[in-house]
Amino acid sequence: MSNRYGWPIPCSAPRSPDPVQPLLSASGLASAPRYPMSIMVYFPDRGRDRVPDAYWALRQHKQPVAIIGAGVAGLTAARLLSPRIPTVLYDAAASVGGRLATRRCDGHAFDHGAQFFKPRHPRFAAEVRRLVDQGVVAPWIARFAEFRGGTIASRRQWTSESAHYVGIGGMGALAASWATGLDLRLSRRVTGLRSALDGTWLTLDSDGEQGPFGLVILALPAPGAHALLPADCPLRSVTARARMKSCYALMLGLDGDLDLGFDAALVKDAPLSWISVTGSRPGHQGPSGIVALAANAWADANRDRPPADIQAALLAALSDLCERPFHASVTTLHHWPSANSDPVRADGPQIDPDHRIALCGDWLRQGRVEAAFLSGAQIADTIIAAMVTKG
């Protein structure tokens, strides 16, 4: 059974009153590229000249998909879509990865965003095994400590049994591996979206309009996505619910070896929340150093202070915890305005077919690398499933 535009409708499925949520007769998280014929997507009928044309264009490979944001979610969606649909990936930064980032400065390398990841979902676990086999990631066998009340309350050794994975030579190397072969448009800031009958157009700060696209996926933190969504787009109710938390990353480059008695530390009840010794990470090259991350609450409360004050305060907090001064040859600070959030936990893939816009990102699930991967995979699965027709 299908509607008048040819979209298959499960016979038992009612029409959805929510224009954001398609009806799925099976999960969009299938791990295999083949989709059972029972996985069909139905979008509410809101006009012959708007909804069907966009999705028929995708189905017939006539219009590409644009993904804005080349973090983990955007890279994952692009990797799954690009073999089936022409896909263009935009990012305002000069490199891919988002918070999967490595900063290099005067011979030092700092993973100053995501510190590690652990596979929990079977689909992500399979991807991690592939990355291990290819020599892209490895377990971080670290001496782990937990600070409470300014002192070390517990210690343990991380092992490969319940592994904490990192990119070999930096987390940025993992992002670069995922980006291989994709159509990337870096250093391109998208400042607006315009929906038209022929598709959705992007406005770029340097290149004017580009398009039309059959679908635009916003793989951005919620505030960035919210700013681009049209005023009448129902997805704004989803992005408006997100409460993002900021973070500062203090990076110290040191000369010579460094032994703090631990390689990684979780910090409770302090301006800092995390300390990492860079030289302990697999494949690290160059002198050792420290990455110290501010607690979200502290970062939010102090975000209006001058960067020099933030840097001095975090350095003092680090020295107090480690009971020693640090004389660094390199000292730098990075602010992540949307480091993580309490998950919005929106049900199902977030797509508005009227405006040809979709959302993905870890903020929809939980602030982890795995959550970003699964969110990007889910939105790609949904688009691919919508292109499946009964033979």
TrEMBL record:
GO MF entry, a single one: oxidoreductase activity
Q: Quote the InterPro entries the UniProt record gives.
A: Amino_oxidase, FAD/NAD-bd_sf
Spell out the SUPFAM superfamilies in the cross-references: FAD/NAD(P)-binding domain
Q: Which residues form the Amine oxidase domain?
A: 164-384
Q: What is this protein called?
A: Amine oxidase domain-containing protein
